[in-house]
Amino acid sequence: MNNKYYSPLVFELSKPGRSGYSLPKNHWGEHHIGDINENLLRQNKPELPEVDELTLVRHYTNMSNNNFGVDTGFYPLGSCTMKYNPKINEEMAALPAFTSLHPTTPECLTQGALELYYNLQRALSEISGLSEFTLNPCAGAHGELTGLMVIRAYHQSRGDHKRTKIIVPNSAHGTNPASAAVCGLQIVEVGSTPQGTVDVEALKGLLNDEVAGMMMTNPNTLGIFETQIPQIAQLIHECGGLMYYDGANLNPMLGVCRPGDMGFDVMHINLHKTFSTPHGGGGPGSGPVGVTAALAEFLPNPKVVKGEDGLFHITYSDSALGSVSPLFGNFSVLVRAYTYILSMGREYIPMAGKLSVLNANYIKEQLKAYYKLPIDGLCKHEFVFDGLLEEYGGGAHDADKVTTLDIAKRLLDYGYHAPTIYFPLLFHESMMIEPTETESKETIDQFIEVMRKIALEAKDDKALLHGAPHHTPIRRPDDVFAVKNAKFTF
Predict the structure, then answer these.
(1) Between β-strands 186-190 and 211-217, what pairing exists: parallel, antiparallel or unpaired?
(2) Cβ atoms of residues 379 and 465 within 8 Å
(3) What stretch of H or E contains 165?
(4) For the chain, first and last CA: distance in Å?
(5) Do 421 and 403 meet the contact criterion of CB atoms below 8 Å apart?
(6) Where is 406: in which H helix or E strand?
(7) Whether the Cβ atoms of residue 15 and residue 49 lie closer than 8 Å to each other
(8) Element counts in the chain: helices (H) and strands (E)
(9) Which of 320, 343, 366 delimits the end of a domain?
(10) How far apart are CA 151 and CA 281, in angstroms?
(11) Looking at the domain assignment, is residue 71 inside a domain?
């Protein structure tokens, strides 16, 4: 391939007989393998690449240079707050006292780790306005499932088994209906107003004694704050249901308002988003679940409590919904989040939310003369464009129009990771932009300038964008073919 960005696969670099390392000779003989069952032994040698050490080092170094992360450039990935992860978080998580701690070490020898777990629970309670937390869920969707299981356990404890419906707005995160389905609940969708918020009048027609609760993402996936939450909460509670807060978009709300004060009964928090712990490549993550005092007994086992003796104890209860993870979830992520909270403190945690809102609105206002803004007005941490304006090549009925996919691919040529595209599903050419609070004005201005430049390119030379990216290791893979003809082995 004639591409200066192309790095050959290690199998392409392989030459028979080359080796970068040799193991000591086997002094126990060929047949001293131990008591391994014959059917578990390999019959043929593994097809491994044969390369020298320098070639191997260069291969992995070149491959790593093709990765993109928040440490290498601007990452405006809407729906997931890919904010900068301060390196002090990594230092604390790497402390041998934590990394060498066996999960089943007796609690008398793990007081420091248990204290951290307990203190993080209390910090999240203060931030959210909810009484108790479990830190055991290992991801945001895992937290959603756990929270819904709490709601289900609550209704079943009262013998109210007919409550099997969960109301989900069409502006909620896509994992909401999936989590509800896994929990065995029936999803009932409620629509949105032209302003992008929940249609309260439509909601009223869905309420009955079969409703277990309602899930709300706030701000929703359009980056809009749901102003009717008090009325919605009252309606749900009056019909006997519970309110669930999807905390994946909690970042702009930090120190400004609390879900517990709004009338929510259950929520999950994405520690790997709001509290700056890395979650690239699908993990690791953490999705703590908070509840009101009335629901605390249903939180999963095990639990960490502070005893009257001043020590921290691991407890189990029969009223808990069971266990949702091995012991205490992804503990290293908890350490990172706790470090972030302590570093920011009460003074600066609210600044994170306010700056994320400022940055998002600044980009939106600078670019809405080029890109279609379906819902104008103040947004929170993120906003959604619906492709280019028609005068810049985004015609709704033009077969040769420049699509959101074209824009995302062209951004790669300029060294930017593309934002989330084609989500939310409310608009045909959705492009969700979320800058986070950690980006400087200079970085944001550079991104704005590139987005303007792409709009002008689209107006003058559509073919340039249709063919993008032009300077990446691969161009446009056939995603549909890849899904239908998945190849998992070499």
Answers:
(1) unpaired
(2) no
(3) strand 165-169
(4) 19
(5) no
(6) helix 404-413
(7) no
(8) 16, 12
(9) 343
(10) 31
(11) no
Tokens at residue 50, please? 């044969």
**Distance (Å, whole) CA 146 – CA 267:** 10
Spatial separation of the C-alpha atoms in residues 438 and 382, rounded to whole Å: 14
| Under 8 Å between Cβ of 120 and 333 | no
pLDDT tens, 163-210? Answer: 999 999 998 888 899 999 999 999 999 999 999 999 999 999 999 999
- Type of residue numbered 94: A
| Domain-embedded: residue 69 | no
- DSSP letters spanning 320-336: S--BSSSTTS-HHHHHH
Q: What CATH code is carried by the domain that includes residue 284?
A: 3.40.640.10
- Among residues 278, 312, 343, which one ends one of the domains? 343
pLDDT tens digits along 290-332 = 999 999 999 999 999 999 999 999 999 999 999 999 888 899 9
Q: Are 417 and 68 in contact (CB under 8 A)?
A: yes
- Looking up tokens 């028609």 gives 390
Q: Is the peptide bond before 8 cis (omega within 30 degrees of 0)?
A: no
For the whole model, what pTM was predicted? Answer: 0.89
User: Within this chain, do residues 271 and 205 fall inside the same structural domain, yes or no?
Assistant: yes
Alpha helices in 244-330 (DSSP H): 259-262, 271-274
- CATH of residue 440's domain is 3.90.1150.10
Q: Which residue has the tokens 């249709």?
A: 466
Q: What residues have CB less than 8 Å from 118, skipping those under 6 apart?
A: 304, 305, 306, 312
Domain holding 358, by residue range, is 353-483
Q: How far apart are CA 12 and CA 1, in angstroms?
A: 12
Q: What's the rounded Cα separation, in Å, for the pair 424 and 176?
A: 13
The continuous run of DSSP H or E covering 120 comes out as helix 111-128
